[in-house]
Structures are given as structure tokens and as C-alpha cells.
Amino acid sequence: MPVEFEQTFRNFLMGHQEKYNRTYHFLILMDSIVAAAKRIELYYRTGALKGNLGVAGSINVQGENVMKMDDIANEIVLHYLASNKRVIQAVSEECADVIDMNKSGGRYFVYFDPLDGSSNVAHGLPVGFLFGIAKRNLEGSIKGPEDFHLRQGSEYIAAGMFVIPTGMFTLALRDAGCWRFHSDETATYVKPVRMILPENPQNWELSFNAGNTSVFSEKVGGWIKDNISKYKFRYIGALAGDFHRLLSNGGLFMYPAIVNHPDPKENRPQGKLRLLYEANVVAFMCREAGGDAIDETGTRILDIKPAGHHQRTTLYVGTKSVIDELISVFK
Ligand code: AHM
Ligand code: MG
Predict the structure, then answer these.
(1) Looking at ligand 1, which atom is closest to the CA of residue 240?
(2) Ligand 1 close to Cβ of residue 51 (< 6 A)
(3) What is the CA radius of gyration of the chain?
(4) CATH 2.50.20.20 describes domain 9-194
């Protein structure tokens, strides 16, 4: 019986680098990101069995100290990023400060959330490893001084996410599309499929924390009331999982500002999600899939100039015509 071989992620990426006359440094960087994802996935899959997904500081059934899954994932990513020697600096959701790696010889900045959607961890349900990549200003494409870790999304060269533990991986390459890969029986990512958001509204989904509706602004609440019946409502509670569905079916994911909370201290005028390693990552992938993303002032997410590496933003990401409609609501 003839054997069928699916194209591997590495072979796909090598073809991409050669087509665009690029170096192999990016391959080496991506190799380490994939290695980290596989290790997180393995830990997540086996962690529940071993009682290792519990609360940090508790003791598991083997009598060992339990580390929070977020911390484990963070250590894994930091290890692989530092060892590939290509990273100048990294920003992690789990680290307060910017992490220096190979400051003189590195080529890339990496912004990552090693384990997004932690409320799903206790249930073994999907979480995400999200990352964005920018590059040292080697070609002078960035005007003015190079602001090291504070790049805006439009300057990323790639962004992607692993939906853990499903074995799904999506990577967008600047001006070269958004691609999805599956993990095969040998834990190799294979079978590139180009993702394009469907224009046909038949399967469009709307995804947001509906429990917050009463604390959104009146504009947002009004739009939801008028439009919710046009969509199928879906919410996994982990950005990677929700965005993964959206890429196939189209529609809108949003995390609006919380401005009408009865306890004003609970208001979040900038929303919840982080710009550098959450919002920019999905906005970049969405743009490469033909969609768009804005904040609640109607500004494109990828055009926001970050002032701090953990800054938050409101987020509306999805099908382009839906985002265009929202721009007119917000402006
Ligand atoms: P986290 O980084 O603390 O895990 O929070 C980010 C997550 C996203 O994955 C998800 O879209 C959102 O928070 C869900 O928030 P909420 O529970 O408020 O709906
Ligand atoms: Mg997060």
C-alpha cells in the first residue's frame, strides 16, 4: 500500500524562507517555539493524571511540590527561547520585566503568553500558547530609534498560537498568509492549510463573556442587542480556543471595556487582554486571514504604539465587514 506523507511544518517553513530569500535563523527560532509547545502539551496531557495541575505550593499524589501550570509553561518557553541564541529580548505575561537574552547577537523579539486561559487548566480544557515575533531593525524599515521590546503589531513578522492540548497550531507570516497545522501521531506538525475567514455569514460566531454585558458601555450593549441574533454564540473562555473556531467560521470575538460595574474599582476601561502577546497575536493572524481587529475607539490593534510591555487593550477581532460596521459604531 503506498504511504502518503503530509508536508511537515518545518519543510513548509523552509520553502517559505527560500521563496522569500530569507535566512534560516527564523527556522531555528520556530524550531525552539515548536519544541516548547510540544513540551507544554506533554506536561498538560500528563499533568492531570499525576495530580500536577493543582494550586501552586500544594503537594501532589507523589508527595512532590506542585508548580502552577502557568509557571511551568513559562519556564519551558524561556528555556527554549534562550537556548536558540536568536532572541534579543522576550516579554512574557508571566514576567514583570523584559527578559534579556542575546542582546548583542540576537535577531528577534518574542512576545508570549505561555499559558493563556488558565481558568480552563483545572478542567483539562483548551488553553493557548500565544506568541508574536518582531525583528531587529536590520533593514532600516523602522523609522527613528529602535524601541527594542516595544514594537507595534504592524511591525511583527509573524504571530501564532498553539491550542493546547488539541495539537492544533496556527502561524501567520507577514504578507504570506495564515496557516494551520495538525500534530500527527509522531507529534510532528504537518499538513499546512491556509486559513481565510469566510465572507458568507451562515456560520459566523459571536464570542464574548456574556455575563459582562450589563457592565459594557451603552454603545456596545446596544450593538449586542441589535445583532446577537445574527450569530451563533460560542465562548470557550480561552482566547486561543475561541479564536481558533472564529478563523474557520468567521464572525467576531470581543473583549470590551468594562465601564459600568456597580463597584467602580472593578471597571476595566482598557478591557482585560494584553496588547503585545494576546491582542496583537490574534489581530496579526486575523489580518493575514483577511480579517481585521480594532479597539473600542475604532483604532486598528496593529497600529497601537505600545507604551508599556504589559499594557491592556479592548479587542474586537474577526470578519472584516463586521469590524467595518463596528468602526462606524465607535467613531
Ligand atoms: P489569562 O491570561 O489570565 O488567562 O486571561 C486571558 C483570558 C483569555 O484567554 C480569555 O479570552 C479571557 O481571558 C477570558 O476572560 P473572562 O474570564 O473574563 O471571560
Ligand atoms: Mg493571558
Answers:
(1) 9
(2) no
(3) 20
(4) no
